Amino acid sequence: MTETAVCPVLHERDHPLQPPVGFPEAVGDGPVKMLWPNGVEAWIVSSYAGVRQVLSDARFSTRKGGQPEMRTDEGETVLDPDQPGNINGIDGAEHMRLRRPLSRGFMVKRMNELRPRIQQIVDEHLDVMEAKGAPADLVTSLCLPLPSLVIAELLGVPPEHQELFQATAGDLFGKNGSKDEYLAHATKLAEVLAPIVAEKKAAGTNDDMIGLMANDTDFSMDELIFLCIGLLAAGHETTSNFLGLFTLHLFEKPDQLEILRRDPSRADVMVEELMRYTVGQLGGAGLTRRATEDVEVDGVLIKAGDWVSVSLIANLDEELCPRAEELDLERDAVSHLGFGFGPHQCLGANLARAELQIGLRSLFERFPNLRPAVPVTEMDYRDDMITYGAAEIPVVW
Ligand code: HEM
């Protein structure tokens, strides 16, 4: 076993769209030991094969895993692993009991049925942006409201709670929030959600996600509420940041933007390449697991009890595709790791894909001359432990 104990500063980037300074060199191809920002020692696995192995091998547990260990200075978990409904923090049959019914709500067929509504939301927001005129902030005009409205509708949350959800979702994923702050935000959401869940339970309806969970499963009330909070939070922040980052990458690579402008009908495949590349360029120490037995990964012995972070910089591994370090919108879709892999692979991937495909295509069809109003390198970026994205994207057309 190596004795390396480097701790590259994960949040220092020379360029906002490139990996943290020194990170690719420090992680190399193989598992290396590093310190998380809270001082906990962990293996960083960064090869395509290694990441797939860790994320799909049951000997790597997600229990007590997840980002929170990395967020706190004390090394304690923000999120209690025994919190009912903590789908990303449990393994095996316990995990599948929660996951299986939820997957039904996110099936491709269901997401395809949602497409016309997603298109309508996108069109309405682009209408408003156009009517107000340039310059506009793309984040508040489209990136943030789109996923926020869609997830709330999918869950069946009444529109009057939109603003609270949008604000609280940001707080839940906020930078280094203390355990108390986190719980306060979650409690605020839980108070609003409890009566909505109770009402749907009483009505016996299953035509939205909350109804489906309340009436077609054996989930307890605590599980239901926490799952709703998780879905609302996951549904807001990630997709919103990625729609912004995709646009910024295209602004920085005019030849690639030209490919999208030339053939927007391939937007679906292009979104896969943008996802692969963007997630890879984010670098960072991604998703956490803990070994329950000794396991060899990429020729290195990881001992039972060791922490492991997988880095999705693995999306830039040549093993995945040739010239993996390049964004190439003419490439066919490849099996990237942008939505994770294995039993915890993103539940909302089909939803995120539909939103990103429709959002990106419509944006550049409506505004063929869309360009940044200030250089991409001078924009403000929100760099939390969990999410990364531009705080504002001023654009003109
Ligand atoms: C571009 C957008 C998104 C990205 C990049 C993304 C990424 C990910 C990744 C990498 C994981 C795996 C976590 C792990 O292995 O520990 C994950 C899990 C998850 N995602 Fe997403 N996600 C996105 C959008 C969404 C949306 C829209 C939703 C829901 C509405 C969602 C819900 C979830 C849930 C519930 C899990 C946990 C699944 C489990 O543990 O079984 N995600 N996501």
UniProtKB/TrEMBL annotation:
Region spans: Disordered: 60-85
InterPro entries linked to this entry: Cyt_P450, Cyt_P450_B, Cyt_P450_CS, Cyt_P450_sf
Keywords carried by this UniProt record: Heme, Iron, Metal-binding, Monooxygenase, Oxidoreductase
GO terms for MF: heme binding; iron ion binding; monooxygenase activity; oxidoreductase activity, acting on paired donors, with incorporation or reduction of molecular oxygen
Record has Secreted as a keyword: no
Family: Belongs to the cytochrome P450 family.
Designated name of the protein: Cytochrome P450
